[in-house]
Specification:
This protein is mainly α and 215 residues long. It is elongated. 72% of the residues lie in helices and 5% in strands. One of its GO terms (molecular function) is DNA-binding transcription factor activity.
Amino acid sequence: MKPKIMNKSKYAYDLLRSRILDGTYSPGQRIILDQFAKEVGSSHIPVREAMRRLESDQLIEYKSNVGAVVLSIDEKVYKETLQLLAVLEGYATASSASHMKEKDIHKLIEINDEMNECLLKYDFNTFSDLNKKFHFAIYSHCPNTLLISNIEQLWERLDTVRNTNFSFFPMRAPHSIKEHIEIIELLKHQASIIDLETTARQHKLNTLSAFENRN
């Protein structure tokens, strides 16, 4: 019986989480326990467990006399997320380098070229999607799966911010493309782990600086 409850809890968690991250549930929106439990065909127990996990993820909070409410991600959390990503992505990039082949580096060049085309067309939504694709094309070679899982979760949080609170800042785009080229060159020429990690970390910190100076 317990595995079934756990499976229902995981299903409820995954569904709630995806709806929060894709903007279906907007910041401040109340999640009604009874209504959602009926939707997923579950009792209250698995849904409550799912909500506890989401509260731990800082995606919802409980308010007295209201219940579970979707949290908005404020500017402070956004900055802290970028700072943490800078550290994790720097290490992930350096760890991926020795596992990448020439065809993998060529794929990065293709993605970055596509990003440049999107920039010329002012298609910043596709540009942002390709930016994520570029970095995860590198991380797919990283042997530390837990590290990549953490990076994925942090990116999803940034996606939530981008979809709800903060707009993309286009002045950063051309600099991002140039920095990608620098990373590609380091990978191509098998640069030292220190150089790769430092460059990748600074790349993310430059995004933070652009955000701070966006006004």
